[in-house]
Structure formats: C-alpha cells, structure tokens
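S1.2 Input.
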Amino acid sequence: MKSITLRQTLWANIILFLFVIQLRGQEEQRELIQLKTYTFINEAQEKITHDYLSKAYIPALKNLNIDRIGVFKKRSMENDTLNQLLVLIPFKDFDQFESLESTLILDKNYLLGGKEYLQASHDQAPYLRVSSTLLKAFKDMPVLKPTPLDGPRAERIYELRSYESPTEERYRNKVKMFNEGGEVILFEELGFNAVFYGEVLSGCQMPNLMYMTTFSNQESRDAHWKTFIDSPKWKSLSAMPEYQNNVSHIDIDFLYPTDYSDY
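S1.3 Output.
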C-alpha cells in the first residue's frame, strides 16, 4: 500500500514538474514587438517609404523568417497636418531584434530594392521622423495574431490603444488586470479580434501598455465597445477595489491596413 502511494506521489510530482516546465516554455515564447511610426510632411516622402517597405524591407524580413508584419495608415482627423504610417514587427527574441540591421546590410537584394530610401540625401529625406516603441507580448497572448476578417481593407478599423499609468506599481496592476483579471479573455469572448497586447519595454510614454483590436468597420467597432462596457463581467472586474486608479491617460488611434500588410 505504501509502495502504491509512493508511486502515485512520484508521478504527481513528475506531472507537476512537466507542467511548470511547459509554463516556463510558454513564457519564453512571448514575442518581442517593435512598433515603428513614420511621420511625413508630403506625399513624396510617403511614396518613397511605401516603396521601400513593400519592395525591400518587408521581403528582406520575410527571407529571415520574420513574418506577420503589419503596415497601417493612420486615419486622418480634421485637425491633422501630418500623415503617419505604422509598422508592426514581431521578433522571436531580443537577439533577432538586435541583429536585424547588421544582417540587412549584407542583403544585396534589400540594398538594391531600397536604394532610393536608403541613399536619400539629407535635404530629400523620406520622412520627417521615425519613432520606435519596443514591447513584449502579454503572457495570455504570447504571439501576434492576424485578423480573421476578410472584408474591404479600407473600411476596417484597427484600434490601437495606449494606457499610461501614474506609477510602475499601478502599471503592473493594469497588466495583471488584463491577464489574471480576465480582461484579455473577455475581449476574446466578445470577438474583438485582438492583434496583440504588449508591455512597453522602451518608449516615450512610460509606464504604459498597448494593444490593438480589429473590426470590420466603424459601426462594428462602436457596437463591440458598447457590448464590452455593458458586460456584467466588465462591470464586476472594473469595480474591484484592487484594480482602481491604474490608468492615468489613454491614447486611441484608428488605423487601416495597406494592401501589403499581413493584417
């Protein structure tokens, strides 16, 4: 009898050990995400950059087995004077991210295809400025996911949200609310078609997290958010004392994909 109990305990410990190893493996598989934002002052700059991305940069990345690359245009608001283009790139780890530039300069096809952009003169720059935000995917959604929507690209709404927190502690609390609190699961249940959720590791507005959801059009977006706000699960979650005061500022951008975007 003691022998059976000992074997059962041993197998239970082995199963627990394998489970922990699996969880650690999932944690290590969380993708690194770079979000690059190009700002333009004229259409000529935008065209050069589009040609560079579609004909040189993205093909070169895909030759390196970096895929699921998103390229989005920002929907202009009435008072906007500058156009913006956002590029979303997933990396398997920091080494792949860090070594990218040194690898690209050895790619002859990349250098040839991107010549106009790469060799632009100082007074004919292909953009006004480029900014970059580096993120790590949430543990509850460790890899980026292209949208299953197949309607007209021009009508789609890709909603990019940035949640800033007043302190690092409140920021970690908001990340917990998404993962352990069940906010990610609720978005999934309500069909928000999330592309990613990410913890910002380096950016100009910290501490903060960012995430992107997808809708077939503006009407669908508005209807989904109404369902979310009215959801009993959200009302219960947002009322919990432990999750109060964890967001101090929210930025929302509405985007739509280019014809060469993977999303």
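S1.4 Remarks. Residues 30-257 form a domain with the Alpha-Beta Plaits fold (CATH 3.30.70.100).
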